[in-house]
């Protein structure tokens, strides 16, 4: 399980001898799945070259606030917004003082002021500088501003002194970084989601489809990525932009979606079938446009339909299925039919969606659903699909973890609220 998968870390490197350890830190962070962008102060470049850090992070290194080329690629405000975390390692006494003073006279301090992401510092300096009352006061101020300090450690220093001020080892910093994100409910998990409707061709001109806009499935994909999961979204034809950090696979028909799901199931922890899959398709697709026959006075055109594969049922039928969440879009007896689908399709959870109400469900920006497990029902109040998606994921993560615990303890299954 990659503890930092999908996480975006801006690593600030300031000018201290411990800067050489930043190279190893980048290696460890990227090994855990993080996307790392390095920002170096000019003093840091005296200790280690940008080229080394660029090669290890696989991203261009940012050096100057007023570098037009770097700004054109990703400006400092964009970088501040991009980050899930700004980690400064090593953080010198001077950098700590400038941050405490609210300076914005170089790229790194400006970025720290601009970002909404958490900031963590790994101080590294001579023991006398660390013990100095001003440094201590600066650190206290930063901690009051919710800036977290990783270390420093005690021990022998590059200058020959012994005492506090040594930067923590890269392994320790990487572990503390992973700990910060371990609160994300889906950290390290692989989630596969289907969204949108499917299209079933009748002839080269016409097809059968439904009213699914994809909004609910896309909101789930976005919220899953934000919750730390690595997300693949298999999407029917929709008019929506791909959420950030989500791999999107476009499909047209139910059979395409079925194939695509099975191609990508390896290693998946949670499968969410939010797509409105066409249950039937025309038995034959006409090679040419079906014409009105002027000789035939009939007002009726008959199209024979055949069953499509049930994608979600084919996933739960596997020997070792992932945790499977289905949706049930119903116009009447919503909870009854949804509970029946939970049992019949062997789902872990089903989300009952009353599509008889035009304000929710298909196409709308809002939804109101009831999550049904084997031993509980939990209604979620009317809210935007973004909010409903986040609430759904809280329940899904909780039930997934309960089931994992039960499986690991080889006890009987069951998901309690
Ligand atoms: O896309 P939006 O406009 O935002 O609308 C959201 C939604 C209403 C489409 C969504 O919230 C929803 O309810 N999706 C499921 C719609 C549906 O087709 O439900 P169903 O009751 O027909 O199917 C039950 C479950 O089986 C679903 O998880 C479905 O993905 C799955 N299924 C159905 C048929 C099939 N051949 N294969 C399947 O996997």
List the defining traits of the structure above.
single chain; 417 residues; alpha/beta; Rossmann fold; five-stranded parallel β-sheet; 19 strands; elongated; disordered C terminus; binds ligand PMT
Task: Walk me through this protein's architecture.
With 417 residues, this protein is an alpha/beta fold. It has 2 domains: 8-180, Rossmann fold, CATH 3.40.50.1950; 190-283 and 299-407, Rossmann fold (3-Layer(aba) Sandwich), CATH 3.40.50. It contains 14 helices and 19 strands. It has helices at 21-31, 50-57, 68-74, 76-82, 93-100, 107-114, 127-131, 133-144, 170-181, 215-226, 254-263, 311-316, 334-344, 385-408, and strands at residues 8-13, 35-40, 85-91, 119-123, 148-149, 153-156, 162-166, 190-195, 200-201, 207-208, 230-235, 246-250, 270-273, 280-282, 305-307, 323-330, 349-354, 366-372, 377-384. An 8-stranded mixed β-sheet has the order 12-11-8-13-16-17-18-19, sandwiched between helices. A 5-stranded parallel β-sheet has the order 2-1-3-4-5, sandwiched between helices. A hairpin with a 5-residue loop joins strand 9 and strand 10. Helix 1 (21-31) runs parallel beside helix 9 (170-181), helix 4 crosses helix 6 (107-114) and helix 10 (215-226) crosses helix 14. The protein is elongated, with a radius of gyration of 27 Å.
